[in-house]
Design a protein that fits this description.
Chain A has seven helices and ten strands. A six-stranded mixed sheet of chain A has the order 6-7-8-3-9-10. In chain A, strands 2-1-4-5 form a four-stranded antiparallel sheet, with helices on one face. The two termini of chain A are 24 Å apart. With 841 residues, chain B is of the alpha+beta class. Classes of the chains: A alpha/beta (226), B alpha+beta (841). The complex binds adenosine-5'-triphosphate and magnesium ion.
Chain lengths: 226, 841
């Protein structure tokens, strides 16, 4: 489903070159749940961005759903993300001038879905926000915002969901609830999940744990630990 | 992407956009009001003209000639249904009544003349019905002058007529027109009885047509072209439709419209730069949202479409407000300038200017938002993962396309306003150059401000200079916008004061103030003596002969005129060939004539003529061309041996055609005389001449000049008002900049207050800062305005400019104060922030 080969990202930072990712090789199967772990600054977010087609590598290849994506141009990447990819971020990233429902509707409308409203309401129902559809992000708590973001991410039935520390800004209890929801939805929709986390507890649920250190894959653990 | 998504996104984006909406709407509404106001005014003047011109012509179409007009041409004016025709004849003749003889303009009419308007009679009545073959109607003035009354009789040619009515007024007979004497109306049968119409009389024949429906400009022109091509005598017929009645007025109206239209567009374009700044600030605040949209899968152009949709929505609001205000402007005219609106004329609300205003406002807002919206391409989608991502480079094609869209949009708007590609290009190019210069000047200033040693300065001034130097948001933009506004106003004011001043003193101290037409050669000594007696220092006169051209370089004029394409639409290019020309002769040129080519009376072999350069150009002839004239049946060929430039403003007697003395002297002619009289003497001139020289018609220059001056000052007022709009727009933009930096400023203010500065102190700081911006904009703008006006005055109207030493710095100062006030007003919120806020980060 998702793989990368010799993936490298270099950045020019203050005169000298910084190697953020160094020849990373990975394979993630269809429907799999992979967790990316590692200390702060180890390159987790960077890897996620490259795998999801948000950014382009300095060298190496990325394949998503049978398609090579590292050499696509901006427009093609947009279309790829629109059709195949969903996101959940640490800082929620809801559009502040849209209501919860409208945030969820946006990718559906973009994809031209015919049952957009039904689907959006249904998803908000599933994340327990059926009553809050007309609230703006500012009127929702952090956990609620992240649940809206989840509904938005799953709305267009992406093949792969990328989540960058989705619980990082939430307290433990709320974070646990959000994770539960992600797991449920993934199960139900059959989505491949790539999740970046600090939290070893969270990673236990994953089928595969990829440990990064200083831009390199330190080791990969297979099989759920739960 | 579906349109509905663009639309709903545009609506959603408008939430919480109140501040943006206010400035956006203000920026656009001012410009749109100006643009709409100009077209609405012109449209309503045009509707006045339209209703008047049918009356002036008395018909829809008039055909006018010095020879009878055959019925065979009627067919050319049948557009589906038959046109109604009446015939009119005019000639100057002598009338004998009450023992006196007087020259009158006789007009013979039939039945339903005039088709439009009516002739005021006393006692009231319908002219066509009153006139039988022995009845006539006579101008009231003449009745009074000759001591006649209704019921008396008078003698015209060989026949006696009874006066049945006094003529009070007649549409189409303007006070400025060339009249030989008072009007007398008879019927066509009556004219036949007088036997005046025989050989050698100078009768003008007119056929007037009333059309059941207006066939439109193009059909009319086509009919005219057919007439020209198919009828032999066509070059001698002058065809006028009510559409081209008052051609001079119409042409000046058109020029007025394109000129004022462009000035108005300037404030709209300025509003556009304001819009661009608002959009820039707005999109900067939306970077994160754009990144999210991009991450979700929106392509940059889809994000652009969404944001343009939002811009269009705001622009629609602003344009609608502006267009409403502008299109109501004509309703103010009866209050401000009642003399421009004829009695009983109803001013109507016109859709076209309103629609045009909306379209222009929308278009300008959109094209000006495209360049700042390029920022969308720069937002890297990875921003959703971390904030400090380097922006992407915008694709070259996008930046180029945006620049093209902007330039194309401004060009299209200018073309819509001026309807002339050359004007549109000059407007767009000129604007680009000016804006470029202003940007350079503003940048240079910022550069200077950042380099200036600030140590010795007063602390407030130091802060102000530092604020200018700060790589701030939009200081350059505001300076440019305000500077452009000042430029427009100052150049307009400079041009118009200089022109008005020149017109006011247009009559040079020794220029003639009256002209006398139709002085017979043997009357001149007597007339001159009379003029001297009334105080004229040196009355002058020149011989004038009227003749038509019959051939140029051996080619018959008729043939020439048929070949000549008529691109003016009113037959002017042909008319120049076939009309009656006035020719004079003199040994030496007067000082207001300058030879520019050839030499005067230099060819001993041929009879010579000297032509005015523009006239020669219109005629299509040059040195060496031979022009043959038909002088009352005799053919005289003259060779062009010199070209002249005439200083028409001198108000002397000047001619397109000056012949060599001796060539035409013995042909029947009259003299045109000119003299300088005091205004009081002028008033008595008519009666002083009437007894002895009844055929001499005096024309006074002063009232004509007054009329022109009146028109010019109205135009100037319009330009000033429009210029004011540009300054206002500039100030709104400045206010927009001030308030868009409000958040940043309020932290700064809080900090300053923590440091112990009082509120008044902070206000002084801000005052100095915005005043400096205004001062700079005012200086750059007024200097550029002076340069522009000087160029215009020297190059276009040949007038030496005067450097307004005092006005320039005063203008800059005024702008400084205005902009300080405006900046302060827009910063009130920032000024209110309390010191504690600086502690919260
Ligand atoms: N655009 C950038 N500019 C400068 N440095 C960058 C940029 N992107 C990444 N880096 C650097 O690359 C390294 C990896 O960053 P990345 O965000 O991928 O780490 P991370 O593992 O996600 O860390 P965290 O757990 O703190 O989110 C860091 O040292 C970071 O400073
Ligand atoms: Mg990270």
């Amino acid at each position: 489903m998702l793989s990368c080969h010799q993936l490298t990202k270099r950045l020019a930072s203050g005169g000298h070159e910084l190697v953020v990712l160094d020849h990373v090789d990975l394979q993630i199967g269809r429907g799999e749940f992979a967790a990316i772990l590692g200390p702060s600054g180890s390159g987790k977010s960077t890897l996620l961005g490259l795998l999801a087609g948000l950014d382009r590598p300095s060298s190496g290849e990325v394949h998503l759903d049978g398609e090579r994506i590292d050499n696509l141009d901006e427009d093609a990447l947009s279309l790829l993300r629109r059709r195949k990819v969903g996101f959940v971020f640490q800082s929620f990233q809801l559009l502040s001038n849209l209501t919860a429902l409208e945030n969820v509707l946006l990718p559906l409308e973009l994809a031209g879905a015919t049952d957009a409203r039904v689907r959006a309401r249904d998803l908000l129902e599933q994340v327990g926000l059926g009553e809050r559809t007309h609230h703006y992000p500012a009127q929702l708590s952090g956990g609620e915002q992240q649940r809206v973001a989840l509904a938005r991410a799953f709305a267009p039935r992406p093949k792969v969901l990328f989540a960058d520390e989705p619980t990082g800004n939430l307290d433990a209890a709320t974070g646990a609830r959000v994770l539960e929801l992600i797991a449920d939805l993934r199960e139900r929709e059959g989505t491949t999940l790539v999740l970046v986390t600090h939290d070893r507890e969270v990673a236990r649920l994953a089928h595969k744990r990829i440990h990064l250190r200083a831009g390199r894959v330190e080791r990969i653990e297979e099989g759920a630990l739960a | 992407m579906r349109l509905s998504l663009v639309f709903s996104a545009a609506l959603r984006e408008s939430r919480g956009a109140r501040g943006r909406l206010l400035f956006f709407v203000l920026c656009l509404a001012l410009g749109v009001a100006a643009v709409t106001g100009v077209s609405a005014l012109v449209a309503s003047i045009e509707s006045v003209l339209r209703s008047q011109s049918q009356e002036l012509l008395g018909a829809d179409i008039s055909v006018d000639a010095r020879r009878p007009i055959p019925e065979s041409i009627d067919g050319y004016f049948d557009f589906g249904e038959k046109a109604e025709r009446v015939d009119v004849r005019e000639l100057a003749t002598l009338v004998a009544a009450g023992g006196k003889t007087r020259l009158v303009e006789l007009k013979a009419i039939e039945g339903s003349f005039p088709f439009y308007g009516s002739i005021g009679l006393e006692p009231r009545g319908v002219l066509g019905a009153l006139l039988t073959d022995s009845k006539c109607a006579v101008a009231k003035d003449m009745l009074v002058e000759c001591d006649l009354k209704v019921g008396d009789s008078l003698k015209l040619g060989g026949a006696q007529f009874e006066i049945v009515a006094a003529v009070l007024d007649e549409p189409g007979r303007l006070d400025m027109a060339f009249t030989l004497g008072p009007r007398v109306f008879v019927s066509l049968d009556g004219l036949a009885r007088t036997k005046l119409e025989g050989f050698g009389s100078r009768t003008r024949y007119k056929a007037l047509y009333r059309l059941p429906r207006d066939p439109g400009e193009r059909v009319l022109r086509a009919a005219r072209e057919r007439l020209d091509n198919e009828v032999d005598d066509a070059p001698y017929f002058r065809v006028e439709s009510h559409r081209d009645a008052q051609p001079a007025l119409r042409r000046s109206l058109e020029r007025f419209e394109s000129f004022l239209g462009l000035v108005a567009l300037l404030s709209l374009v300025l509003g556009g730069t304001g819009v661009a700044q608002i959009v820039r600030a707005w999109i900067a605040a939306r970077t994160q949202g754009v990144a999210v949209l991009r991450a979700i899968g929106f392509r940059p152009r889809e994000v652009l479409a969404m944001y343009l949709g939002h811009v269009a929505l705001l622009a629609l609001v602003g344009s609608a407000i502006g267009a409403t205000a502008g299109s109501l402007l004509p309703f103010l005219v009866p209050i401000v300038a009642p003399e421009l609106v004829p009695d009983g004329h109803q001013i109507l609300w016109e859709v076209a200017p309103f629609a045009k205003g909306i379209a222009l406002g929308l278009g300008i807002a959109l094209v000006f938002s495209v360049p700042p919206l390029i920022a969308i391409w720069r937002v890297a989608p990875v921003r959703v993962l971390r904030n400090d991502v380097e922006p992407l480079p915008a694709p070259r094609i996008v930046t180029v396309a945006a620049a093209l869209v902007l330039a194309g949009g401004v060009f299209a708007a200018a073309f819509a306003q001026a309807r002339d590609p050359l004007y549109a290009v000059s407007f767009t190019g000129g604007l680009a150059v000016l804006a470029g210069l202003l940007v350079l000047a503003a940048r240079g200033l910022v550069w200077c401000a950042s380099r200036l040693p600030r140590e010795g300065l007063n602390p407030y001034l130091r802060h102000g200079v530092a604020a200018l130097a700060r790589p701030g948001i939009g200081v350059t933009g505001a300076t440019v916008a305000l500077g452009l506004g000042v430029l427009v106003v100052s150049s307009m004011v400079l041009i118009d004061t200089r022109l008005t001043e020149r017109l006011r003193t247009a009559l040079p101290p020794d220029a003639p103030s009256v002209f006398l037409l139709d002085v017979q050669p043997n009357q001149w000594d007597g007339v001159a003596a009379k003029l001297r007696g009334m105080g004229a220092p040196e009355p002058r006169s020149v011989p004038v002969l009227t003749a038509r051209m019959s051939a140029i370089d051996g080619v018959d004029v008729k043939e020439l005129s048929q070949k000549r394409p008529d691109d003016s639409g009113v037959g002017r290019r042909r008319w120049v060939l076939t009309r009656e020309q006035r020719i004079t002769w003199m040994r030496e040129l007067t000082p207001d004539n300058k030879l520019i080519d050839g030499a005067l009376w230099s060819d001993p072999e041929h009879l010579e003529v000297s032509l005015e350069e523009k006239f020669a150009e219109d005629l299509g002839v040059g040195l060496g061309s031979r022009i043959e004239f038909d002088v009352q049946g005799r053919r005289v060929e003259l060779t062009v041996t010199s070209l002249r430039k005439v200083e028409w403003e001198s108000f002397g007697i000047n001619f397109f055609l000056v012949a060599e003395p001796g060539a035409l002297d013995d042909a029947p002619h009259f003299r045109l005389a000119a003299a300088r009289l005091e205004p009081e003497a002028e008033l008595q001139l008519q009666s002083a001449l009437a007894d002895e020289f009844p055929n001499v018609t005096p024309i006074r220059v002063r009232p004509i000049l007054d009329k022109i001056l009146n028109v010019v000052s109205k135009l100037a007022l319009g330009v000033r008002v429009l210029g004011l709009f540009t300054i206002l727009t500039g100030l709104v933009i400045l206010g927009g900049v001030a308030s868009s930096t409000a958040l940043q400023r309020s932290r700064e203010v809080a900090l300053l207050k923590t440091l112990g500065l009082t509120r008044l102190g902070v206000m002084r700081l801000f005052f100095v800062e915005y005043a400096l911006v205004g001062l700079v904009a005012g200086l750059i703008g007024s200097v550029a305005g002076f340069v522009l006006s000087a160029l215009f005055l020297e190059r276009v109207v040949d007038t030496a400019p005067q450097l307004p030493w005092l006005a320039l710095p005063l203008a800059a100062l005024a702008v400084a104060i205005l902009s300080a006030a405006c900046g302060l007003a827009a910063s009130t919120r920032a000024l209110r922030s309390r010191p504690i806020e600086s502690l919260r980060g």
